[in-house]
Amino acid sequence: MKHFFLLSLFISGISCNLLAQKQPFKPVSFPDTYNQLLDVIYTQVNGWDGRMDLYFNTKSATPTPIVINIHGGGWNHGEKESQSGFGSFFKNGYAVANVEYRLVAVAPAPAAIEDVRCALIYLYNNANALNIDTNKIVIMGGSSGGHLALMAGLLGNDKPFDTNCTYDGDIKVAAIIDKYGVSNLLPLTAWKSAKNWLGINHTNKKFIESVSPLYHVSKTSPPTFIVHGNEDPIVPYSQSEDLYKKLKDFNITTEFLTIPGGKHGKFSSEENALLSKRMWLFLKALDL
């Protein structure tokens, strides 16, 4: 009986831990004038469903801008439901597309890039129903999500990764918001997350360049806002320095906000307030 009681306690402890791990994320708060569509399937690949959550205003007299948000997690973990801080975008009349993508356990590179491109194409193909302005698409992400936002935006009308989705017209985002994202995977191939995501191609220089945003910067690249802490222990600060320099070399409208002493995100409330202020000044200057 004693052993059974102890075993019951052990099992109960496991159950409590599992329940604690599965606590739901805080739902997104959105204005009364908005519609919400959760888990919209934007692509299907080999039995995997790519899903996004959409918050959009069909009552607006004119099509609205939209931000595509991409979560981080080293290409190996993370979920769209962890993202909920869209209040400033709603306040400024934006629709929101909160996107998930294939993690490395499902498929290695370039799968995640293909997915975010499909998410972008889905919005183009459904712009009328969502009442969004495809000339005012902003794409945003942090860490590996920043890398994917950069890739989706910098590719523009170049479509080598648009293998699962099609759009006959031109594709161009209005701006990119890159939060401490990876811009060049070549010097990071020993980093476990990057090596795993690159998979069998982790020594293939040409392939690595093809999935690195730095090598897609051109004179037609979208305006890009960059933020990075200069003491980031995960994504080197130099990744953003190099990206900023190349954007400037091509005369692309760009701003680089350094958070002094900043780590990998997790900025203070004051630093986040500064980030929001500078980001909105950047977007407003672009009429976005």
TrEMBL record:
Entry's Gene Ontology molecular function annotations: hydrolase activity
Highest taxon listed in the record's lineage: Bacteria
Keywords: Hydrolase, Signal
Domain BD-FAE-like: start-end pairs: 52-247
Gene3D superfamilies hit by this protein: alpha/beta hydrolase
Tagged with keyword Iron: no
Keyword Ligase: no
SUPFAM superfamilies: alpha/beta-Hydrolases (SSF53474)
Signal peptide (residue range): 1-20
One Pfam family it belongs to: BD-FAE
Protein name: Alpha/beta hydrolase fold domain-containing protein
Species, as recorded: Mariniflexile aquimaris
